[in-house]
């Protein structure tokens, strides 16, 4: 029986696709100019991830080892194309922003990674759950990087969120720093690297703090500090 | 790679265990199964049988080719179906987008026709383009066509509407890769700069004044970005020149409104013969 608590922890934090596995960095850098774009890309990837894990775990017994990679790729590519068509047809404004990057999902090695490492060996239910937490982990990472870049780069947060989520979510659009002149480099591609770097530092620092605390509370003085 | 093959071995090991498990435990389970009822027993045996068959044929070459073929067939069918279902909404979204762009460069009072229905093709200095004629009660009032110019970072695609008298009705930048925060002031929703071209023509200002102020012209450049506005001004000037040279074709009615339509068709044919 799978340990759902551990899986949740892995997906959201310990083994997060971006901040721990360091996968999927291409879309991370490319689309996270704003938090809204990060959210859109995260949700699109989540959709593909859940679909891929579902299909692959269902047919996992029929796939032979030798041809598993082409089968996975064909399935993932199909799901990506479907997502692309659906967004183009039913969320055209979002498509104008994300359109170029949706095709990038197909080379997102995180999806192939989950298919190979998890869905091909586990039950349908477990694979679905794994895809869900991994996808949510990716989405929050993209939103975090996008928000970081957006606040520093242009002084707003969730700009154009109503394009993505409908006008009901217009309240998300906040101008954090009024009359802000903007900090260009954070919006440009280098900002993606800088933001990801800083957030990685923050996560590692937090992890270290937490593990130190655990060691102290267990009353085991650590012999060496690495 | 070693790790992967280890995992594979482990997996095959597991599969073998899973296979042997039911066989070994068959006698123990026999009592249980009798109680569980005939139908379920049959189902279970079938399932085990299926898995055994799968394991035995999974490594055969013909099975693998067939599987790959089936997967590709199924995914292609899914894509074909989705294409059929989304084609119409996508076309509508594109059209709505075009209409939105048209409404920004040309005020609604200047035309009463469906612009997308009066579309023509023409050869321009920047390639073959489609142009759209605006008519008001049968009279051509304006023409809309795309223009292109090389900016700081790649080409800038614009849409331009010129009234029949040669005046610019409006210009909008559709696609560009200019620097965010500097060059992107050419977008109408960031800066009103682009609306400064409304009402301008080849006569007003004079052709030699169709430049940014830095080059001795009349149009503002942006602080920190001269190349982008220079490219836009150049593109618009080229568009005006193109209109000037080709206005015979651009303003020639593509088709007339219904009752006059047949007449104009008759009028046209002798003209062509001449």
Automatic annotation (TrEMBL), chain A:
Location within or outside the cell: Cell inner membrane; Endomembrane system
EC nos: 7.-.-.-
Origin superkingdom: Bacteria
This protein's GO CC annotations: endomembrane system; plasma membrane
Family from the record: Belongs to the NqrDE/RnfAE family.
Function recorded in the entry: Part of a membrane-bound complex that couples electron transfer with translocation of ions across the membrane.
Subunit description: The complex is composed of six subunits: RnfA, RnfB, RnfC, RnfD, RnfE and RnfG.
Name of the featured protein: Ion-translocating oxidoreductase complex subunit E
The species this protein was found in: Oceanospirillum sediminis
Automatic annotation (TrEMBL), chain B:
Domain spans labelled FMN-binding: 151-243
Protein's recorded name: Ion-translocating oxidoreductase complex subunit G
One Gene Ontology molecular-function label: electron transfer activity
Organism of this sequence: Oceanospirillum sediminis
Single biological process term from Gene Ontology: electron transport chain
Keyword tags: Cell inner membrane, Cell membrane, Electron transport, Flavoprotein, FMN, Membrane, Phosphoprotein, Translocase, Transmembrane, Transmembrane helix, Transport
Domain of life: Bacteria
Localization annotation: Cell inner membrane
Membrane topology: Single-pass membrane protein
UniProt key word Transmembrane: yes
Biological role: Part of a membrane-bound complex that couples electron transfer with translocation of ions across the membrane.
Similarity comment: family membership: Belongs to the RnfG family.
Cofactors, names only: FMN
Family matches, as Pfam families: FMN_bind
EC number: 7.-.-.-
Regions that span the bilayer: 66-85
SMART domains: FMN_bind (SM00900)
Disordered, as annotated region: 1-47
Subunit architecture: The complex is composed of six subunits: RnfA, RnfB, RnfC, RnfD, RnfE and RnfG.
Major subcellular site: membrane
EC class (word): translocase
Comp. bias regions, Polar residues: 1-15
